[in-house]
Every structure is written in structure tokens, then in C-alpha cells.
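Repro:
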Amino acid sequence: MLIDSNAYIGHWPFRYRRFNTCKALLDKRMEEFGVDVSLISNLDGIYYKNTQKANEELYREINSEQRFKDRFIPFAIINPIYNGWKDDFEVCRKQYGMKGIRLYPKYHGYDLMNTHCIELVKMARDHGMPVAFTLRIVDTRPSSWHDIKEEWALSDVIPMIREVPDAKYMILNVANSTNLDEEETAILKEADALLDTSGRGMNNITELLSTYGAEKFAFGTHSPILDYCTGLLRIESLYEEEADQNAIEQMRSQNILDHLEV
């Protein structure tokens, strides 16, 4: 089984994207590359002032065809400094059946350690929902002058893990430094956290595997922003002495299944 832990539908305001609908993602990417299931959010929610509208769009699209409901697992985008965010969370969880949340402090204009953000992470924890942080959406160097100019390194999300150590975390598109000090490394090792394989920081995946173990990683594409196969090649190209078949299967699907408790 192969599960993509990091994909999107929707539009990016500064760049044309292909394969950004459920139909295109399923027919032109997932089927071609043998992906059984994708965890998806709606890119539009990163720039909508009211992120719940993006969650509504995602819910409607997934429910427009039965096959979409079988192949996509939705994650809600929540902005914890926007009025009504607690209601948004409950609607997404109860009515829309979303299995996790994605947070974008850089784009929505709040500090990671904002009290409302911490409260939201704890709410997700209490309902067994993973909290996903994306370290990079697009490379800031060739991006539009209207886009943000700051990106995260792996160390930037450690304060939240330290604050709420018993939540489930997903750290997506690890594109910048993966260097952590001794204390930070210990925190990440102890955390129930998954890093997806899409980001260029995963070029040193062999070293990361030796530090954290295969149980900390999951296949991801960051589609439709990045190419569709590099995240998988980082797993499939590992030598036996770097990752045995059990470790490969963990990263292909089992870690995500365990994370979502399905």
C-alpha cells in the first residue's frame, strides 16, 4: 500500500498549478504512480481570510464522487486567530469528517506560540487528530513579491512540540535545515511526529533514519507544488543496509495508518 501524506487541491495565487483537483490528482498522478490514498487540504485556505470556506470547498469536492471518498483523507486548515475558529474546528471534525488539521502561522499572521494556537493544538490532541506544519509552501527565492519571504527550519516547530508533547504532529516539506541541538533532537525522538519525504531536506534521509528511525518518516509529494515522484524515490532508492523491507513499508503507508489510527 502507498499513502501520500502531503498533497493539496486548489489554487496558488502566484503560480499556475496542474493536477490540483480531486479528479486530476487521482486520474493523472495517483493512478500513474500507484498511490492508493492521499491526505489532502485545500491550498486556497492558506490565502483565504476565512479558511473555513476552503474547508467547505474541499468537503464538497471530495463528496462529489464516491471514488473520491475512498481515496482521499481530508485535513482542515484552521486559523486560530480568526473569529469562530473553534466552531470551524468542530464542524470540520464532526460534520466534514476531517482527520487532522494543518496550521500556517507564517501566512495567517500569528506566532507559533500564540495562546490560541496552543489551545487549538491541544483540542486536536484531545480528539486524536494530527497537527501538520508545513515548513515551506513554495521556494521564496523565485516567488512573487506578494508572497511571504520567511521559511521555517525543522527547529522552528520544536517549541510547540515542547509545549504540547503528547499531541500528534506532521512536519511537511522539510526544505531547509534539519539540524537540531541535543535537547531538540531528544524532543523530536520522543514525539509522536512524522516527517514527510517531499522536501529537499530529505536528501540526507539515510542520516535522518539513523538518528530517528524509520517510524518517524512517511512518503509525501507536496503535490501540486513539487514533482510527484521524488518523495517516493527517496524511499525506494534506499539500500537494504539503510532500510530493510519492513522499514520501507512503514514509510510507504504503515506509519500514516498508525498516526491516523485507521
